[in-house]
Amino acid sequence: MSLQGHNTLLWAILAGALGGIFSGWYFGDAMLSIEWLGTLFLDALKMTIVPLIVAAIISGVTSMGDVRKLGRVGGLTIFYYASTTALAVLIGLVIVNLIQPGSGITELSSTIPDEVTTLETASFTNIILSLVTPSLIASGAELDLLPIIVFCLFFAAALTTVGEKGKVVISFFDGLNEVMMKLVIWLMYLAPIGIFSLISARLGAAGGGEAFWNEISAVGWYCIAVLLGLFIHFLLLITILHLFSQKGIAYLKSMMRALLTAFGTASSSATLPITMECAIEGGVDKRAVKFVLPLGATINMDGTALYEAVAVMFIAQAYGIHMGITEQMIIFITATLAAIGAAGIPQAGLVTMVIVLTAVNLPLEGIGMLLAVDWFLDRFRTTVNVWGDSVGTAVIERVIPD
Fold first, then answer.
1. Can you give the pTM of this predicted structure?
2. 3-399 is a CATH 1.10.230.10 domain
């Protein structure tokens, strides 16, 4: 695709997103009739995720040569993502303490939402067990990516040790990676209508503009706190990009199609194929893209971690429960670790929030106040998640061995 084609597609996606907001706002549930178009686009993206991740990781790891180099790059990647997640939680805590969005809330939830009561209990043992799977096919069907990534890392490491016999296998996965990236480019032509349908239908499901405005007004300061924190973290990531990589603001422009897709789909996993394509177009080493981005899309949740720190403090403020330095340190540590470690657990966003609320003895009923606007804020935090993954790839690129 030419540069002119990229720019045209970017504007088309932006028009689709804005058109979706306008249509969902004014036409309400009438837009549910085109929801299937968005579902078609989203499922098409998800269909490419597993083969793309398998091919990309195996191709990327084997291209590094000596398997011993993988440990250093992997360690730095995890350290970087853990650091930015911790920064995101810290920003969230500062913002929520300054704004105090929960103060003055009078309509408190008295029941635990069904979405929470049906969750399986998460523990450190569950998180460790989620690293492996008895069936890769079952994990692929559920888009449970973490055990697939772990398997591919070890598979690729083993491939580098078998000499000539491994070269045929490596060539196969190199070719598969190229084919999958070509499929992603084709799918991008569906993005404008897909994103239009997803956004308009979701806003329509909320009852249209007036109904949505009433929902968001009830917790308006909470939404402002989350969005302000996400915006500050987004700017911080741009600063990190300038300081620790050779990429400039042009890299942000190259990632815009991925960021708009993340906003439209509210899924960093579904956006991953497009994120990889945009990062390569932005000039990032393909080996870094193949290894770092799949890992980041699985364990890096900057936006989610920030959101949950604000949400937990909001619930405490709404119920009039004081959170001192000790309790906020627990929130900081728990939110950071939960966001990184719960990647392989179904409904990870709710699971991690339950983990943090339980750690500081806050009522789970408080989640009920947030669910009405969760789908809206989810789009912004997913966009920040994807941007964080992209910046991490540009930063880690500098330590990839020649």
1. 0.89
2. no
